[in-house]
Amino acid sequence: MIEAADAGIMGIAGMTWTVFVLVVLAGLAAGWIDAVVGGGGLLQLPALLLVPGLSPVQALATNKLGSIAGTTTSAITFYRRAKPDLRTAIPMAVVALCGSFGGAMVATLLPASVFKPIIIVALVAVAIFTLAKPSMGQETELRFDDRRHYVGAGAIGAAIGFYDGLIGPGTGTFLVIAIVSILGYDFLQASAKAKIVNFSTNLGALLLFIPTGAVQWRLGLCLAAANMAGSYLGSRMAIAKGTTFIRIAFLIVVGALSIKLAYDVWTENLAPLLLP
């Protein structure tokens, strides 16, 4: 391991080249996962938490900077090739931005650990539902017309935007399954719309974090570059391979997210009670 100078790489105390490379590689992989189906934060945020001189709030804020670069890249790539309906995606994104503010405000009053057991149950239910209906999301079959369609899209944006502000991991995954199962889009079109909405939720979080000075800009911009590269590659692959590939990737990410949140619940709530 090559040790950094006293101030650390990027001016962060205790940060080494080894950790820096790990964070960048995690950003590259996270960008790819987010572009395909969402859930890249499962890799990116834990990697940032390994940086010795970074507080949890700084890690969260810097994570959002990397993520918004990736979602911007994938949103543009999907828009050019999949042509998502912006009449649905843009209102969802606006409502999700407001929802993320609301979630962040609640997060200051209630710990995320209160909600994690509920999220685990929801994820398991989503996985079972997706497996039980292999034809779901193969083709676009809209379930609502006109006003009800946009009301449903707005409700999805508000609920998942709130979740992103409150907890965060798996936001893109929840967006995809909600757009597929509630609105009736196929997985490819759902992924395209999810990227636009996820950009908005990331922006909402950054609007809260930037004024506080929590974003570590030099590290965050390096992470953003890696995230953009991964997002571009992931978007191209998802578009080329289509709905079946996205559905399989979706199930894998849902499984990983469920395990991660279950581990968090164990370490935060159950282990201290059961272990001496």
Short account of what is shown:
With 276 residues, the protein is an all-alpha fold.
Number of helices: 10
Q: How many domains?
A: 1
The rough form would be described as: globular
Largest sheet: none
Q: What's the β-strand tally?
A: 0
Mean pLDDT: 81
Transmembrane segments: 89-108, 114-132, 153-183, 203-224, 245-263
Organism: Pseudoclavibacter chungangensis
Keywords: Cell membrane, Membrane, Transmembrane, Transmembrane helix, Transport
Membrane topology: Multi-pass membrane protein
Task: Describe the 3D structure.
- InterPro entries: TM_pro_TauE-like, TSUP.
- Its main location: membrane.
- Belongs to the 4-toluene sulfonate uptake permease (TSUP) (TC 2.A.102) family.
- Pfam families: TauE.
- The structure is a single chain.
- The chain has 276 residues and is mainly alpha-helical.
- The two termini are 35 Å apart.
- The relative contact order is 0.20.
- 75% of the residues lie in helices and 0% in strands.
- It has one domain.
- It is globular, with a radius of gyration of 18 Å.
- The longest helix is centred in the C-terminal third of the chain and has 32 residues, at 243-274.
Q: What is this structure's SSE topology?
A:
Blueprint: H1 17-36, H2 41-48, H3 56-82, H4 86-107, H5 116-132, H6 146-166, H7 171-183, H8 187-209, H9 217-241, H10 243-274
Protein name: Probable membrane transporter protein
Membrane topology: Multi-pass membrane protein
InterPro entries: TM_pro_TauE-like, TSUP
